[in-house]
Amino acid sequence: MALATPLRHLLAAQPAAPEPTGTTATLTTQRAFPPHNHRRRLRARFAASPASPGPTRAKLGAAGLELLRSFANVDCAYELTAEELRAKVSLVDALVVRSATRVSREVFEAARGRLRVVGRAGVGIDNVDLQAATEAGCLVVNAPTANTVAAAEHAVALLAAMARNVAQADASLKAGKWQRSKFVGVSLVGKTLAIMGFGKVGSEVARRAKGLGMDVIAHDPYAPVDRARAIGVDLVSFDEAISTADFISLHMPLTPSTTKLFDDETFAKMTKGVRIINVARGGVVDEEALLRALDNGTVAQAALDVFFEEPPPKDSKLVHHENVTVTPHLGASTTEAQEGVAIEIAEAVIGALKGDLAATAVNAPMVLAEVLSELSPYIVLAEKLGRLAVQLVAGGSGIKGVKVVYSSARDPDDLDTRILRAMVTKGIVEPISSAFVNIVNADYVAKQRGLRIIEERVLLDGSPEVPISSIQVQLANVESKFAGALSDEGDIRVEGKVKDGTPHLTLVGPFSVDVSLEGNLILCRQVDQPGIIGKVGSILGKMNLNVNFMSVGRIAPGKQAIMAIGIDEEPDKEALKLIGETPSVQEFVFLKL
Description:
Elements: E1 23-29, E2 40-46, H1 62-71, E3 75-78, H2 82-88, E4 94-97, H3 105-111, E5 117-120, H4 130-135, E6 139-142, H5 148-163, H6 166-174, E7 192-196, H7 200-211, E8 215-219, H8 225-230, E9 234-235, H9 238-244, E10 247-250, H10 264-268, E11 274-278, H11 287-295, E12 299-304, E13 324-326, H12 335-354, H13 369-391, E14 401-408, H14 418-429, H15 442-448, E15 452-459, E16 470-476, E17 492-499, E18 502-508, E19 511-516, E20 520-527, H16 532-542, E21 547-554, E22 560-567, H17 573-580, E23 585-592
């Protein structure tokens, strides 16, 4: 689509008084994207420098802003309070935030269903209420790769600076003192570094620590053993890691299970004189417990880039402790990382608003980009089969049981069907409700409506190069408005395949057909005899309805048959009436795709 309008305005709002939540930028565009045709506004929300004195906030990089501006109109506002954010969020389709902004349940409720995407410009998403986002059908995406190297480099910088007392010696010398003997440090060579959380940043820290001659171990219950071994790292238990390390570097997310994980009990298990680096999340450390461990000598030194409260109180004993080196959340603060994060999150948000499946989604199935690309036509097929099946249900029939059958030559472990299940749910629920269903909230919506979805996989012989041979959707214990769609078992049954990248309907009830799932569809059940196809085709032609595809499936010659007709336009009542009056046509149904 062509860009309808250029950037209209950039607004810098007044700085907030209480409850500062960061900086925002709103973007508006005239372009229409599904599922809405209204004018779409994208609110990109950042943490930037305030307009008056106060804590400095990070801005979104210029390259990211340019990308957003190429897609929509940008309107930046500074230091909105939580109340101001709630007042504005219902006017926008997307929200981009830094770590200082809390996107709470109240924000999603205030959006009134308009908000479709929240983009977190960075890795951590503990400032976003994921459950509320999921319930609202709002996709949350982050930028997990662009600042990886910067965060790892900062961890190593703090590691070295702490070991050699760089910050303390610098302050001493600038105070006019020359205290060489006071700031004797420790060597890194031959020391054991325990990395707690062996994800992208943790593994990069490990590579650099190995280069410094350190022995590296790691704890991460989800990390692949072979990936750790490839860079010379042994994965060990939590207790072994903290009890044998000379240095401990934290790289774990903040979750209910990791909140204040490093408490008095944990510190008591450590080797006396251990040194700790935290560039992850302040909340994983019980700061009062750390202070006690520093005072009693269990922890010799700590280097902290993150805190439970940011910025920390000015009188914080932990910040002012002589054996603590601190920086103001600078892990991602390099010019290169800031630009990279800005570009990564801008691309993710724009893609999500266009309807693309985001590989960086954090409240939706995490699927690799290459897998998304491979499954793309099957995603369309799954939704259309769900949409077809629900339109075949007679009014008043409550849908409770759904079975989705995937036929594939691939091993079940090599076939991720979560997205396909979500799209079947979308196809079934949206035509009969006001709900907006997407990959984010599909399972939640199904549960709320008492919809039980069972998946079954049929393993086929043959080459696994094609991910899926066919998808079949079955609706059990319902009445059908088109009896021909009922299988021998009495359930509504439709099946489809992807042919040359295009979804095709290949089975209706017991009848084999082959019709492209484009435009709209008419199904006719008739006695298999000459002339029926011509009569129906003639009616459509007289009504100026273009037929794009036609297929006939029959049980046996002269017996029951189904005619599947693909048409570009929606027929009027007169055309449908004439089809129904055609001799030998026993029933028909018009289906919107």
